[in-house]
Amino acid sequence: MHALIAQQSVTTSGLEPNFIIELFRAVLGDLLSSPWLVGFFALMALNAMVRTVRAVVHGRHSKDPQRRFSGFDRAEIFARAGNRCEQHSWLFGRCRESEGLQADHIHPHSRGGATAVENGQALCRRHNKQKSARVPWNWELARLARRRGAYFPPGMPRAVVRHRTTARPVANG
Questions:
Q1: For a disulfide at 113, which of 49, 50, 105, 120, Cβ 3.0-4.6 Å?
Q2: Position 167 in a domain
Q3: 80 and 25 within one domain
């Protein structure tokens, strides 16, 4: 590859189409000679395909006209979570943060999630930022519902409702 670049700079000042094709072939040959790079690019392509399919599936729902949780909804979300962050880690369990909690859409509003208490969770600032606008998998929602049994008040529904099935009037102001 370096020989191709040196030869091109000696022969002409402009780039010829054949040179660009040969350079592309040389770079591609170098990349494909390493199984680690082939695996990396295959994983990147698979990740892009999964993200595209999920965006198509979850993007078909219209956005809820109400973006923010009301003060009453936020208070209810925090109370049912015991005024503590609901994020769990594999190693340390439930987050211990209880200050600066934020009401988060489990299924993001930007991806068609409803602004409803059933789609809300209490997260600390760090975990809310870390989650971003990622759409959770169904197994993650089932795991969250199981964990909520330990700290939700008795009789409180634990399942997540991703999308609103009936229209709710929007409060003015």
A1: 105
A2: no
A3: no
Beta strands in the chain (DSSP E): 88-89, 93-94, 102-105, 120-123
In a domain, 14, yes or no: yes
pTM: 0.62
**φ, ψ of residue 89 in degrees (nearest 5):** -115, 160
Residue type, 39: G
CB 161 within 8 A of CB 116: yes
Domain that holds residue 89: 71-148
Looking at 35, 58, 81, the residue that finishes a domain is 58
Type and span of the H or E element at 121: strand 120-123
Query: In 33-97, at which residue ranges do the beta strands (DSSP E only) sit?
Result: 88-89, 93-94
SS3 content of the chain, % helix, strand, coil (to 5): 50, 5, 45
Closest-CA residue to 101 (of 83, 80, 117, 79)? 83
More confident residue, 173 or 48: 48
Which amino acid belongs to residue 90?
W
Q: What is the mean pLDDT of residues 36-42?
A: 84
Q: Which of 125, 130, 121 is nearest to 78 (CA)?
A: 121
